[in-house]
Amino acid sequence: MHDLILIGGGLANGLIAWRLKMMRPALRILLVERESTLGGNHTWSFYQEDLTPAQHAWLAPLVVRHWPAYEVRFPSHRRMLRTACYSIDSARFHAVLMKDLADCVMLGAEVGEMDAGGAVINGWRHEARAVIDGRGHESSAHMRHAWQKFLGWEVELEEAHGQAMPIIMDATVAQRDGYRFVYTLPFDERRILIEDTYYSTSPALDAAALRLNIEAYAASRGWRIARMLREETGVLPIALSGDIERYWDDKPDVLPRSGLRAGLFHATTGYSLLFAARLADEIAALDDLHADKVYQRIRHFSAHQWRGQRFLRALNRMLFFAGEPAQRYRVLQRFYTLPQQLIERFYAARLTRLDQLRILSGKPPVPVAAALRAICDLRKETSSKPS
């Protein structure tokens, strides 16, 4: 009998298992992953103000690189923001968790039927006091999404790239398929991640076209690629509207869920690390890991963060529906003229009422009538169309 079985070895479940092992090493935990490694093939980034000092401290062994600032580039302006940013990659994630969790991990596992009290793994039923399903995004008739989709190459260049800080948005590139930007993370003087990213109403990703875009971008920067070290892709949900209570009520059981499957992601960026770290602390603080207790804590946490991001979903509707696709960059271009501390609170999903007023004040970067229609969309918190 396990105290907790976590189905899916991605970011959310991995952090829950790791945090519980730190805080309560006597617990009998089983982290189950279908693939041969934990964490897939990803790079997760976050900022100083996203997490508490204590969360930064316990996540520190996973960080592969951090920088004291980052840059954004738009057609009308460039800006360096003095906000520290951090990156974790799946190779470090896998190595650290395998070292610390050891025999608590089952890789290459096939999962069959599961419920709140156990799961069939490789043909055998494993019982547990609680099970958490963390197998990624799940569509729902009660949620409406757009998408952030990307393809990235981590490359080694023939010569030094000359870029000291990350450029998290270079929107000076040609705008197509929605809002497009290139994201670059310099890991050392010749190794850099180049990611072609789109905010689109379609989740379809044309990998061949994005690879050509990366080659063209590198050439435009005067970079010659010596070798490609790895390729990563992703399609992240961007929340437009929905009913979080109906989303949870519509499940056929009371099986706890985590990560994207629990709706735990930043509504505008699609990033989930800040919520994964917060949820890991929530679960570690539970005195009783019985399925009902775990379910109620996660559901409450999910609903609380969803309600707290209502304004961000309204902004997303303005981004996607208030202007022509080729002009969507203007929304972010204006946003990055706002005070740095407001931008930090935005990424941490902790905007104040004053922040919200500041974002909406002044001349809007898209037509006023269209912006108001998008923000005040009558479907804003309900939907009958699945994402």
Automatic annotation (TrEMBL):
Entry keyword annotation includes 4Fe-4S: no
Pfam families, per the entry: Lycopene_cycl
Keywords (A to Z) from UniProt: Isomerase
EC number, UniProt record: 5.5.1.19
Coiled-coil boundaries: none
UniProt-listed SUPFAM superfamilies: FAD/NAD(P)-binding domain
Enzyme class: isomerase
Listed GO MF terms: isomerase activity
InterPro entries, per the entry: CrtY, FAD/NAD-bd_sf, Lycopene_cyclase_b/e
UniProt entry tagged with the keyword Isomerase: yes
Matching NCBIfam families: carotene-cycl, lycopene_cycl
Family affiliation: Belongs to the lycopene cyclase family.
Protein name per the record: Lycopene beta-cyclase CrtY
Organism this protein belongs to: Noviherbaspirillum album
Lineage: Bacteria, Pseudomonadati, Pseudomonadota, Betaproteobacteria, Burkholderiales
Gene: crtY
